Amino acid sequence: MKARRVAVVGIDCLTPQLVFERYLDQLPTFRALMEGGVWGRLRSTVPPITVPAWTCMATGQDPGLLGLYGFRNRRDHSYRELSVADASWVRVPALWQLLSRRRRRSIVLGVPLTFPPRPIAGDLVCGIPVPADAEAFTHPLTLAAELDQWCGPARYQVDVREFRRKELAPLRTELDQLREARFDAAEALVPSREWELFFMVEMGVDRLHHAFWAHCHPDHPCHPPDSPHAGAISDYYRALDARLARLLELLGEDTAVLVVSDHGARTMRGAVRLNEWLIREGLLSLARRPPEASRLRPADVDWRRTIAWSDGGYYARVFLNVAGREPEGAVSPERHEEVLSDLRRRLESMPGPDGRPLGNKVFVPREVYRESRGVPPDLIVYLGGLDYRANATVFPPPGPPEGPEGLFAVENDTGADGANHAEEGVLLYRPPRGLRAAGRLDASIYDVAPTVLRLLGEPQPPEMIGRALPRLLGEA
Q1: Residues 280, 384 within the same domain
Q2: Are residues 195 and 247 in the same domain?
Q3: Is the pLDDT of residue 25 over 70?
Q4: pLDDT tens digit string along 332-349?
Q5: Are 356 and 257 members of one domain?
Q6: What is the pTM assigned to this prediction?
Q7: CB atoms within 10 A of CB 324
Q8: Residue 152, CA atoms < 13 Å, CB-side half-sphere
Q9: Pick from 6, 128, 18, 69: which is nearest to 426 by CA?
Q10: Distance between CA atoms of 417 and 63, rounded to whole angstroms?
């Protein structure tokens, strides 16, 4: 069945175990969506990161096809610092661009990796990352002034900057303002524009989880039992539920609505200093240690004696130093597969701080992607299956202490953070009036774009790797 309009309400990091279980009794709007439509878990990308996950959802292509393996990526095989991706890195059309070719109008609000703004048939407000000094982050340009009028004294915000380093009480206020401004903008755009696709992303839940997870989850190793912020996440979810109710009413019963998240969240047990582990394993050689603990700097590496190095984050990217590919490669091309297999084996058997296997999950890009465009990592590693994040820091002289203390940290190296990303997000679907669709359905992030196109009566491009979900189309 064709829908008159489709709305995708994206909520970054909305987590299934919270919305479907822990807080469900406090969330009447989410409960009504579950009872009256389709709901389930949405499998994220490898890796489950905001960038590339939202872009994969909007294009129906995987990170390898996009050449996007995180917020930061290698531009080439040199040793220079990784570059922050933006919309210019995306060479395939998103849903709103496909519709623009058919002169069908869209509203795009806060979707990550849409800066710098590109003209579309409709209205676009860029999502993260947007430089602080950006002169234009909307299409048309005049939309920026309207946003500030709609959002009141707090004005429209793209994100809360430096959220890991802020005092928690004012951060809660800023996150509330971020949510309210995003939904204020949505409620102003929806009735004032002509559109057939509405696609928004609310970022506050992601920042909330990273900043407050330890305060709200007793299983966190740093949980403060008497924290004044123990209710921060539940409070935010309730306020989000109320704003979602208002938006759903405004969208109207003729609109097919998908509420989705790009990934979930989980307790972060700590961090692994993976570059220090590579040094201990004899795979990474330093020319010098930095004067203070810091991220691995290319200038500090003895590249001619280095087999592999890593970049940190919620997952680890490990790169081999291959002769003829990297400027001072130490691994001959003939030994590439042998060295890669050996490193994968070592990573999968890595012991944790207690001496037992940490439970790392290791992926080779060619095994999980259709293609590996751009400059992919040689290995993608979920440390402890995402119980731990990757810490790229190396110690100053004389180096790390012996034993687990030198390899494992309790805290994140880039600021306070209590949650890692999880591999499953949320899918909720309210069918348009006249279409019956209900029950539990787990799906893939790649299924969203084909389903939206089918609901709008548009064909699925052959390069999209997901499938239109029959249950959401009233066909099953």
Answers
A1: yes
A2: yes
A3: yes
A4: 999 999 999 999 999 999
A5: no
A6: 0.96
A7: 10
A8: 8
A9: 18
A10: 25
Calculate the alpha carbon distances from 262 to 2, 16, 55, 225, 333 in Å. Answer: 25, 11, 10, 30, 37
Tokens of 222: 């740093």
Instruction: Choose among 89, 111, 81: nearest CA to 312.
Output: 81
State how far the Cα of 348 lies from the Cα of 358, in Å rounded to an integer.
8
Domain boundary among 369, 392, 416: 416
Using one digit for the tens of pLDDT, what is the confidence trace for 282-329? 999 999 999 999 999 999 999 999 999 999 899 999 999 999 999 999
In this structure, what are the phi and psi dihedrals at residue 206, rounded to the nearest 5 degrees? -60, -50
CA torsion, ordered 404, 407, 413, 419, to nearest 10 deg: -70
**Structural tokens at position 336:** 């590439």
Last residue in a domain, options 401, 416, 431: 416
Say yes or no: 450 and 436 in one domain. Answer: yes
CATH code of the domain covering residue 174: 3.40.720.10
Total length of the chain = 476
Evaluate if residue 428 carries a pLDDT over 90: yes
Region of residue 113 (phi > 0: left; psi between -120 and 50: alpha; otherwise: beta): left
> Which whole-number Å values give the CA distances from 445 to 10, 11, 70, 122, 360, in the listed order?
12, 13, 16, 24, 23
The Cβ of residue 21 has, within 10 Å, a number of other Cβ atoms equal to 10
Are 330 and 399 part of one and the same domain? yes
Domains in the chain: how many in total?
2
d(CA 271, CA 467) in angstroms, rounded, equals: 36
DSSP code at position 164: G
| Cis upstream peptide for 63 (omega within 30°) | no
CB 413 within 8 A of CB 354: no
The span from the CA of 256 to the CA of 1, in Å, is 11
300 Cβ neighbours under 8 A, 6+ residues apart: 286, 287, 288, 289, 290, 394
Q: How many CA atoms lie within 13 A of 5 on its CB side?
A: 21
Please state, in angstroms and rounded to a whole number, the distance separating the CA atoms of residues 418 and 209: 7
Question: Whole-angstrom Cα distance, residue 328 to residue 322?
Answer: 8
CA 316-158-411 angle, 5° bins: 35
Range of the domain at 398: 270-416
Same domain for 358 and 225? Answer: no
Residues 309 and 214 in one domain: no
Together in a domain, 125 and 176: yes
- State how far the Cα of 361 lies from the Cα of 388, in Å rounded to an integer: 11
Within 8 A by CB and 6+ apart from 475, the residues are none
